[in-house]
Amino acid sequence: MKLANRVAATQNVGLNDLYTAPDPQQISFAGGYPDPAMFPQAELTNGLKQAAADRAAFQYADAWGDRALRDQLAALMMADGIKATGTDILITQGAQQGIDLTARLMLDPGDGLVVEAPTYLGALAAFNQYAPTYYEVPMQEDGMDLEALQKIQLTHPVKMIYTVPDFQNPTGAVMSLEKRQALVRLANRFDVLILEDGPYRFLRYEGASLPPIKAFDTEGRVIFLGSMSKILSPSLRLGWLVASPQLLDGLETLKGAADVESSALIQRGVSRYLDAADFPAHLAQLRQTYRDKRDVMLAALHRELPSGFAVTQPHGGFFLWLQGPAGLDMTRLQKGTLLPAHVSLVPGRNLSPHHTMASGARLTFAAPAREDIEPGVKRLTKALRQRVRQ
Ligand code: PMP
């Protein structure tokens, strides 16, 4: 049987390249996993138990999501600069479903889609199903290159821009305030939708937080995606999106068509958790742990990194970007040198639709144990030095 073209289009993203043979000795800087020690296991279990005491939690509910949880998330959004009430929010299966539903809402085959280069691989996997025409905008230290974006918009029809403005996956970069405002102006001028993906927003380790892009949205053309995956637990599959009523209408229909609704039991459990727990204190603990791990990784890299290589200095999130010399192929380096040395990263090749980032790689400091970070960086930099000498 011939499968639909979207299967191959999604496989082309290279997700399979990420899975390497199991190696118990490996120190992995690859997967964007939270530190499992940071899951608030007891408090979440309490919340889930309380939710499960009510028989209604086991019944169908509705595609919008649990009303009490939506109100709690709206309060979280309000405190973060986004004017929203519970009715402006749709619950999703993680931010990943928010990406998929938005792409489904906006993109017919061939429609213009701007992404940052490099960008989040899972977003490309979702987008590829809808066969867009991709335009890559290079990342700079202060977010995407808006001059490059404007040039694209003046010459090509763009329907949607996907951005991760806070502690970007995979560079760790933060978009400046000026660029956030200018991006909305550009979107207004060219009638474009902005998809703002913000799963790392609450994980800032230094400096003052900038308002989300959605805070500058005057025409209802920004969709903000939030997620509990990095700040509570990814297995909850609990995300949300904030959008204007007109867009929400279509999104809710598409959500119902995709999976009817998200689990009421999980939603109510998280709602009870948020009622009872000291969530700000939990976030503060996360920041402290991840800040420390980031510092350990950066200190080791600065000590050991051979010339010709550079790393970004993320102020939050899970990731930093390792840039190698032009012409270096990180995928080959990983297969030929890093994996045999029992260390891994995410090579840049697949992190942009046109494969323009092959000489760079993403490293995470979130998942590895603190004591593994320095030995892992030593393995990595030794391999890089060998490569440079070849
Ligand atoms: N967006 C970005 C930028 C991410 O890094 C991730 C997780 N790696 C996701 C979305 C998907 O997360 P979730 O578990 O919320 O679906």
UniProtKB/TrEMBL annotation:
Protein name per UniProt: PLP-dependent aminotransferase family protein
Pfam families reported in the protein's UniProt record: Aminotran_1_2
Keyword tags: Aminotransferase, Pyridoxal phosphate, Transferase
Cofactor(s) needed: pyridoxal 5'-phosphate
Keyword flag Transferase: yes
Keyword Oxidoreductase: no
Gene3D superfamilies documented for this protein: Aspartate Aminotransferase, domain 1, Type I PLP-dependent aspartate aminotransferase-like (Major domain)
InterPro entries (alphabetical): Aminotransferase_I/II_large (IPR004839), Class-I_PLP-dep_aminotransf (IPR050859), PyrdxlP-dep_Trfase (IPR015424), PyrdxlP-dep_Trfase_major (IPR015421), PyrdxlP-dep_Trfase_small (IPR015422)
Superkingdom field: Bacteria
Source species: Lacticaseibacillus jixianensis
GO molecular function, one term: transaminase activity
CDD domains: AAT_like
Aminotransferase class I/classII large domain ranges (all copies): 48-380
